[in-house]
Amino acid sequence: MNAKKSLESRIRGWIPKDSVTLRLYKMPKPMWWKPLWISLLIVTIATAILSFFTLHMPLQQLIIGTVVAFVAIGFAYYIRIKPSFKANRALYVLLGITPFGFVLSVAYAVFLGRYVTGWLMGWFNIIVTIGILITGAFIGDWIGKRRNYQLPLSL
Asked: Shortest CA distance to 144 belongs to which of 84, 90, 81?
């Protein structure tokens, strides 16, 4: 019985078992929390302006890069400040695809992909890679289910 409890606590991580306990441990945000997001936006804009004048980058590339950075900052702000069940589940699925699916896909391409030749090679590799990515998504969802789809430090 003791081994079962230690395995469960290892899988669950830091999350308490019931939701009542989750409400008791709500921590206040630190004082530097709001200035962090503001300074992140200012540094992004300053980097874009600096890159335009010093590296002579095309304006179109700078605008696209800045917009992508703003979207990433907005997504990071959303999952940290206003977490929801659907967003957390999607994040766990993406985090499952990234390390598990991508690493397995690269390992497959390097080690096993060279043994399949001929006209079958292209389609076979695509099907196996998609299968590996789907498996990574299921692994991420399984890990998220074990943690009740709660992100670390998002209480």
From this structure: 90
Residue-level pLDDT at 24: 45
SS3 assignment, position 151? coil
Cβ atoms 37, 77 nearer than 8 A: yes
Torsion, Cα of 77, 47, 69, 32 (10° steps): -10
- List pLDDT tens digits, range 36-82: 888 998 999 999 999 999 988 899 999 999 999 999 888 888 777 76
Condensed to tens digits (0 to 9), the pLDDT of residues 90-132 reads 888 888 888 877 777 777 777 765 665 555 566 777 787 788 8
Place of tokens 């907005």: 74
**Spatial separation of the C-alpha atoms in residues 105 and 110, rounded to whole Å:** 9
Contact 145, 93 (CB under 8 A): no
Q: DSSP labels for 104-149? A: HHHHIIIIIGGG--TTHHHHHHHHHHHHHHHHHHHHHHHHHHHTTT
Q: What's the pTM value of the predicted model, to 2 decimals?
A: 0.54
d(CA 18, CA 15): 9
- The token duo for 23 is 């409400």
